[in-house]
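Incident log, support desk, overnight shift.

02:14 A customer reports that sequence design results differ from what the structure should imply. Their input is reproduced verbatim below. On-call engineer (initials T.W.) acknowledged and began investigating.
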């Protein structure tokens, strides 16, 4: 086809021959046609896909084509070359393990017939280089994968894969670049173009993508040009023009008009409470925009449906015309009465406007004027003026004065007293203002009656009651309150007064007492008496390790009774044994407390000096030498040094002995123990430098890594600096010389690896942020540790100088964690102020006990400032929180949570015998925090006198207050804590096993179950053992004791059978053979027969070997050893001298070489010991003399080779051998592969110079490539 321009009509619709502009189009300024220019790529033929249905373009169905005289004959590939039938495939549905998975990638196919292709076709099948280049460019721009396939009829199929949005964009570009393009036009008036374009061109881009066309708007520089041009595939251009036409048609139905009306008429336009405007908008479906009073404009804008707009404009004109002759009058009204005239939300003047159609203008506060203006019809102005004066004088005010302390008496509980004094308050406003004034506002009669009643009540209160202040130092306020408010409540009840104690945070020393005059005087006198006593009282704590408490108390309380007799005013409180606490409290007269404190401190110092303890590492193989026969050696050391030496528990992996006594004696005992060990073996110590920051990683997981190194290298001891020493890098390795050297190398390698993979960083922070960063119950730091598992987060100690967070871990995770914390701290430094409403009746919960709850919230949320309203600000609910945004929001959430608990709270009374309170009280704070409840114990010394029969005794009554579900949970927890005592009968012969060596076993039992176990002394011959503690813990302890008893009873008979002993004689020369290398043989025999074999030491010079075990097993073991000795007696043994330097080579790594030679020649080779006189002498034994001699020859030959090599190594430096270069890989050529066939059958996907299309490893929509 030549490069010409033709006019193309739209496809016929509804029986017509095409689409043409008509008179109806011209009415809205629309005129459009289509022009078919030369395709942009120069091709001579092509056609778009099938036009879209209902404006939605189709991508896979061909559209009707415009035939050309030179068009080739088109054959349908699917008809002329039918596809062979597919074999049936049985599909197996396999349910995915995690349910259906939605794919992120979609694939779409676009097909172009030969006539639709814009590119000039080649002469042979597969020539697609030009189209492939365009596809590759589009794929690179859109991030999709595009593949092409050409059929024999020259139709082109394009597959697009990628994300949905990218595929849509690529399809639009492909339709423009690969398909024949035409131009269409439509005329659109200028006022509609903005809606077509949209904000920042969003509507225009949406149209272009939807219809795969390019839409060009007229240039602003061409005022008379209203033509919009659309360029794209023919069918899509037609659909786009129809879409634009429909949009413009809808826009033409809307209208916006303005009308200018004087601002003085706006009240009538609006109507009372904007009733007129609302009526117009709902009736005509329009929007009326009236300028605000502050605006200088007087233009009203009406927009909406055209007919409705015109109707509203007409009504507004009629309204303005009807108000041309309005009149106005003015009157003076005191400003204090203006608000009565206005009413709530201007309801008063709206009511006058509705009744008289007269507008009342009230001056603003800024105008400071008393003049009221009325505008309207002259016949109605008089009526309106009457209504104005009636509303202004319908309300009066009055003030009643009172003393500040009388306020709560006037109001009463929940306003009950005020309600009784002034019964009808519906039309009254009564405010209690600061300064002792009651402000009353309302109708005159009711105001006068209320004022009279309040004045009479004030006079009565002044006559009968009194309010006085007593000054008490703030630090003594909590003693006036007493435990759980017991003392202050007693003062209130006894004297019928109200006592107000200020919050500790305010620092005030004034306590106010209010009530009857006689009661106030008595209460003040009682408070002064308490203060005088408290000023002479003192409380001191002594830190004494719990293990010394029993010694301080003495047998049957001997010492503590003595102190109580000597210092009668002092109360001595030791913590319960179940509670792990070291604090002993002294309270009483100053002088006596100081004296007793000095006496106990001195005694504690003596106990510390005589109970200093340290540990010493001893290799297990030397335990028997340390202990000695029947404990002779260790007992001797104990007597000489006056210390206690405790061995580790049986089966414990720890190889440390604990030495207890005075420090000098302990050091002397350790020196003696080390001396014995050093004499037994060549023990050396070596230090290695390892950075301190790596220590934590090496010692993590219970020293597992260090224990592995110790076990691997002969059980050496590796000693790190104490965890409190953050500066030392010295690590000590102690053990045999060779083992220490190998362990040192392994430790250095492990430490180097840990250091390379470990990063350390710190973040400075403020002290008040620490608790917030940790979170409630560690919630925030747990999240951080879960996000960065390799990072160890160390928060600073209490000292202000160390306010830095340390991070240790992998470099990448440390950097990420540091960035996260820095971002949090940055947010915490930004201060905000927020508010939360809290019902005044709950304020007391937050501010009592020195604002304990507020302080707790502040500490947990970065030190935010929480301000509750003053107590005299009745009805005020707003609580202010100032601090960083995160902390403030967290504090707000916590306050709302507490209020929610208070709204649903209940109070129950739980009877717990008074004697158990002491053991439960230490757990009370933990229960309060865990369940969020208040737990109150009766005050010390509470009497049960006057208690009703069957009721809970006051001394036993424990109250729990909180949310109902939490109260029940706290009750159950308290019941579980009530100590119980149970007994169990244990045979006397089992008592010693239950106690264990030095009481170790029974201590472990008590610690594991948090109970006290009382075992009677052996002199009483009593089998009953008492266990005391919480019910659950006691049951668990009894179960453990029962299990141990069953094990002991079951093993009694077995122990007797297993103790059978056999002694027999074996010559000394065979003892070492029975033991084997490193005791391997004797261990193997013992394990196989389940017996214990005792071989005498070499220094004992004894030939007797003992076997202990079951009689049958012992006899079998004896028979095996005797048979082994008989074999050894019949063996040939020869001695040969081999250079000791050759011995390591002969033995090999882990004895492999020696074992191989023994197996090969069927001989036994015994190497010389460390203490043998001749270190070169090797003994070779075997059943065959030939085998022994052959083995000797082999060993001599190996020795000779070794010595020759040794001589050569010392003579010169061995030359360096460079490794030979690796041969080049052999080239593989494949022939007959599918891709080597003719390109007509397998068309190329692009030319050699074409850019590579976007692809992925998935192999495309036709599957994974197999080459």
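02:41 Re-run completed on a clean worker. Output:
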């Amino acid at each position: 086809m030549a490069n010409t321009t033709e006019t193309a009509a739209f496809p016929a619709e509804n029986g017509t021959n095409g689409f043409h502009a008509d008179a109806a189009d011209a009415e809205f300024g629309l005129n459009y046609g289509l022009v078919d220019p030369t395709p942009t790529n120069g091709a001579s033929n092509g056609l778009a896909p099938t036009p879209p249905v209902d404006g939605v373009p189709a991508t896979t169905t061909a559209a009707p084509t415009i035939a050309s005289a030179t068009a080739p004959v088109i054959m349908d590939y699917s008809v002329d070359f039918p596809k062979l039938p597919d074999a049936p495939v049985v599909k197996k549905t396999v349910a995915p393990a995690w349910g259906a998975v939605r794919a992120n990638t979609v694939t779409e196919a676009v097909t172009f017939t030969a006539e639709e292709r814009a590119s000039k076709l080649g002469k042979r099948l597969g020539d697609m280089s030009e189209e492939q280049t365009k596809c590759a460019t589009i794929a690179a721009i859109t991030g999709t994968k595009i593949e092409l396939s050409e059929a024999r009829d020259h139709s082109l199929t394009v597959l697009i894969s990628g994300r949905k949005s990218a595929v849509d964009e690529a399809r639009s570009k492909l339709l423009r670049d690969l398909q024949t393009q035409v131009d269409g036009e439509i005329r659109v008036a200028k006022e509609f173009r903005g809606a077509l374009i949209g904000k920042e061109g969003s509507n225009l881009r949406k149209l272009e993508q939807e219809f795969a066309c390019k839409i060009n708007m007229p240039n602003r520089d061409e005022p008379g040009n209203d033509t919009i041009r659309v360029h794209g595939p023919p069918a899509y251009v037609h659909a786009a023009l129809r879409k634009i036409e429909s949009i413009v048609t809808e826009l033409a139905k809307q209208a916006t008009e303005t009308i200018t009306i004087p601002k003085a008429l706006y009240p009538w336009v609006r109507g009372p409470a904007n009733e007129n405007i609302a009526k117009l908008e709902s009736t005509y479906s329009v929007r009326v925009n009236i300028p605000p009073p502050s605006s200088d404009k007087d233009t009203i804008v009406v927009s909406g449906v055209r007919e409705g707009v015109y109707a509203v404009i007409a009504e507004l004109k009629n309204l303005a015309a009807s108000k041309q002759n309005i009149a106005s009058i003015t009157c003076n009204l005191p400003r204090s009465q203006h608000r009565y005239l206005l009413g709530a939300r201007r309801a008063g003047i709206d009511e006058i406007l509705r009744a008289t159609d007269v507008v009342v203008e009230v001056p603003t506060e800024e105008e400071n004027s008393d003049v009221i203006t009325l505008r309207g019809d002259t016949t109605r102005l008089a009526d309106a003026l009457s209504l104005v004066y009636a509303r202004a004088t319908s309300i009066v005010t009055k003030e009643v004065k009172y003393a500040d302390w009388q306020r709560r008496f006037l109001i009463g509980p929940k306003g009950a007293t005020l309600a009784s004094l002034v019964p009808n308050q519906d039309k009254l406003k009564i405010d209690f203002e600061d300064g002792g004034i009651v402000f009353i506002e309302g109708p005159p009669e009711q105001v006068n009656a209320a004022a009279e009643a309040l004045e009479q009540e004030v006079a009565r209160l002044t006559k009968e009651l009194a309010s006085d202040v007593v000054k008490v130092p703030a630090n003594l306020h909590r003693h006036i309150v007493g435990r759980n408010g017991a003392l202050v409540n007693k003062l209130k009840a006894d004297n019928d007064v109200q006592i107000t104690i200020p919050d500790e945070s305010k620092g005030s020393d004034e306590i106010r007492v209010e009530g009857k005059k006689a009661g106030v005087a008595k209460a003040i006198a009682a408070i002064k008496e308490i203060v005088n006593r408290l000023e002479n009282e003192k409380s001191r704590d002594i830190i004494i390790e719990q293990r010394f408490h029993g010694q301080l108390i003495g047998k049957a309380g001997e010492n503590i009774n003595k102190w109580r007799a000597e210092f009668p005013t002092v109360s001595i409180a030791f913590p319960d044994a179940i509670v792990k606490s070291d604090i002993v409290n002294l309270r009483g007269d100053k002088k006596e407390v100081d004296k007793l404190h000095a006496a106990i401190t001195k005694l504690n110092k003596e106990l510390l000096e005589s109970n200093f303890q340290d540990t010493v590492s001893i290799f297990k193989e030397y335990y028997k030498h340390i202990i000695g026969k029947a404990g002779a050696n260790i007992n001797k050391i104990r007597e000489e040094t006056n210390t206690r030496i405790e061995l580790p528990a049986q089966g414990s992996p720890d190889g440390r002995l604990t030495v207890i006594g005075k420090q000098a004696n302990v050091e002397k005992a350790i020196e003696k123990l080390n001396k014995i060990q050093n004499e037994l073996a060549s023990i050396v110590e070596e230090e290695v430098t390892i950075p301190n920051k790596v220590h934590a990683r090496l010692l993590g997981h219970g020293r597992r890594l260090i224990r592995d190194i110790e076990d691997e290298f002969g059980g050496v001891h590796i000693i790190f600096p104490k965890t409190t020493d953050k500066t030392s890098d010295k690590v000590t390795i102690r053990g045999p010389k060779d083992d220490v050297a190998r362990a040192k190398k392994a430790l250095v390698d492990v430490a180097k690896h840990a250091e390379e993979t470990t990063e350390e960083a710190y973040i400075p922070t403020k002290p008040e942020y620490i608790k917030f960063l940790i979170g409630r119950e560690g919630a925030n730091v747990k999240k951080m540790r879960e996000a960065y598992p390799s990072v160890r987060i160390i928060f600073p100690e209490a000292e202000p100088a160390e306010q830095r967070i340390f991070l240790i871990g992998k470099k990448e995770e440390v950097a990420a964690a540091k960035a996260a914390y820095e971002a949090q701290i940055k947010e915490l430094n930004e201060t905000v102020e927020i508010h939360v409403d809290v019902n005044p009746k709950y304020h007391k919960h937050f501010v009592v006990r020195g604002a304990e709850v507020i302080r707790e919230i502040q500490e947990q949320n970065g030190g935010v400032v929480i301000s509750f309203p003053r107590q005299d600000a009745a009805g005020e609910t707003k609580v202010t929180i100032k601090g960083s945004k995160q902390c403030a929001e967290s504090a707000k959430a916590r306050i709302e949570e507490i209020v929610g608990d208070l709204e649903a709270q209940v109070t129950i009374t739980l009877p717990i015998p008074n004697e158990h309170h002491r053991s439960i009280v230490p757990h009370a704070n933990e229960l309060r925090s865990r369940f969020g409840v208040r737990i109150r114990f009766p005050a010390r010394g509470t009497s049960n006198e006057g208690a009703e029969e069957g009721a809970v005794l006051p001394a036993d009554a424990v109250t729990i207050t909180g949310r109902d579900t939490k109260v029940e949970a706290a009750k159950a927890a308290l019941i579980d804590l009530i100590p119980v005592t149970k007994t169990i009968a244990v045979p006397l012969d089992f008592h010693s096993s239950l106690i264990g060596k030095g009481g170790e076993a029974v201590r472990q039992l008590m610690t594991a179950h948090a109970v006290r176990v009382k075992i009677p002394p052996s002199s009483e011959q009593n089998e009953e053992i008492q266990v005391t503690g919480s019910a659950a813990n006691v049951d668990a302890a009894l179960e453990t004791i029962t299990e141990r008893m069953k094990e002991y009873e079951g093993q009694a008979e077995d122990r007797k059978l297993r103790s059978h002993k056999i002694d027999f004689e074996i010559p000394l020369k065979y003892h070492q053979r029975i033991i084997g290398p490193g005791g391997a043989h004797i261990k193997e025999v013992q394990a196989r027969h389940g017996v214990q074999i005792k071989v005498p030491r070499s220094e004992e010079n004894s030939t007797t070997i003992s076997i202990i075990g079951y009689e049958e097993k012992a006899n079998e073991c004896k028979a095996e050893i005797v048979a082994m000795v008989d074999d050894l007696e019949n063996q040939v043994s020869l001695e040969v001298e081999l250079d000791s330097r050759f011995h390591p080579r002969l033995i090999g790594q882990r004895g492999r070489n020696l074992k191989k030679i023994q197996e090969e020649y069927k001989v036994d080779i015994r190497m010389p010991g460390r203490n043998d006189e001749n270190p070169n002498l090797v003994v070779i034994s075997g059943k065959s003399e030939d085998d022994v001699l052959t083995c000797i020859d082999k060993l001599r030959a190996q020795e000779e080779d070794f010595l020759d090599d040794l001589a050569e190594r010392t003579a010169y430096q061995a030359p360096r051998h460079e490794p030979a270069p690796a041969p080049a890989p052999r080239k593989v050529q494949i022939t007959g592969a599918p891709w080597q066939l003719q390109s007509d059958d397998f068309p190329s996907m692009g030319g050699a110079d074409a850019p590579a299309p976007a692809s992925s490893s998935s192999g495309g929509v036709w599957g994974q490539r197999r080459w």
